[in-house]
Amino acid sequence: MPKMKTNKAAARRFKITGTGKILRKQAGTRHINEWMAPSVKRNLRGWTALSKDSKRNVLLLFPYRKYLR
């Protein structure tokens, strides 16, 4: 039986932490940022936790994940 493949688009967009949380980048920072206050742009930096509703769908794209939560 062939190996299962990880969805590479999902692998680039999400990180799974050691405790099983899924992290995603925050939206809204790609373009049209001139009107944004610097504090808003600062707060959109970095990673944030994925909502529980989307967690199951994302985990299906990672067949070799360590934690099955």
List strands and helices in order, with pairings:
Blueprint: H1 8-13, E1 14-16, E2 22-25, H2 38-43, E3 47-49, H3 52-59
Antiparallel strand pairs: 1-2, 2-3
Rg result? 15 Å
CATH topology, by name, is Factor Xa Inhibitor
Series of H and E elements? HEEHEH
Number of domains: 1
Helix percentage range: 25-40%
Strand order of the largest sheet: 1-2-3
Any idea of the CATH class? Few Secondary Structures
Give the overall silhouette.
elongated
Terminal CA distance: 26 Å
- Average residue pLDDT: 91
- Main sheet characteristics: 3 strands, antiparallel
Question: In the CATH classification, which architecture applies?
Answer: Irregular
Provide a count of the helices. 3
Question: Low-confidence spans: pLDDT under 50, at least 5 residues?
Answer: none
Number of strands: 3
Strand content: 5-15%
Classify the secondary structure makeup into a structural class: alpha+beta
Can you characterise this structure?
By secondary structure, this protein is an alpha+beta fold. It has a single domain, classed as Irregular (Factor Xa Inhibitor). A three-stranded antiparallel sheet has the order 1-2-3. The protein is 29% helix and 14% strand. It is built from three helices and three strands. The protein has helices at residues 8-13, 38-43, 52-59, and strands at residues 14-16, 22-25, 47-49.
